Amino acid sequence: MHRAMLWLLALATALILAAQTPTAPPAVTAPAPAKKYNPQPVLQPIPYSHKQHLALGLECKNCHEVPEPGDFAGIPATSKCMTCHVQIKKESPAIQRLADYDKRQEAVPWKRVYRIADYVYFSHKVHLASGKATCESCHGQVRQRDVLFKEKDSTSMASCMDCHRENAVAITCDFCHEVR
Question: Per the confidence metrics, is the pTM higher than 0.90?
């Protein structure tokens, strides 16, 4: 009986202590904040201002040609740049580096700002010809940029699907991906 009394006393003490100990309200976890897209400027081997060049009346397609079949927009050859820079700002150290690349017939090792995964079919030609997409749709306000950065998360599947929905374009897997 002595053992049973000790057990009851211990149980009663535990219940009393539990009743007196404030319990924390159930944890309510707020949803995780949306990931903020934090673009970083891409430092290029030669400084280039899209803002300055487009203000002169150039258009994206003047430099970034989309050769057949139209899947990729190209990077201009140094000879295209030197069409003007053989006379304009030719004393600038950056233009002198550009002229050196041109003289060696070597491409400037520009760093890509946007890249689509190899397993995604994307055609600049199709997107631009539709009239629903412009360069700015995916690349942001390039006309206002001295230094480019990945301004929009336009190469994620979510952003592509959002754009397709907004423009009433198919979102089936095989529309952009090769189905095996």
Answer: no
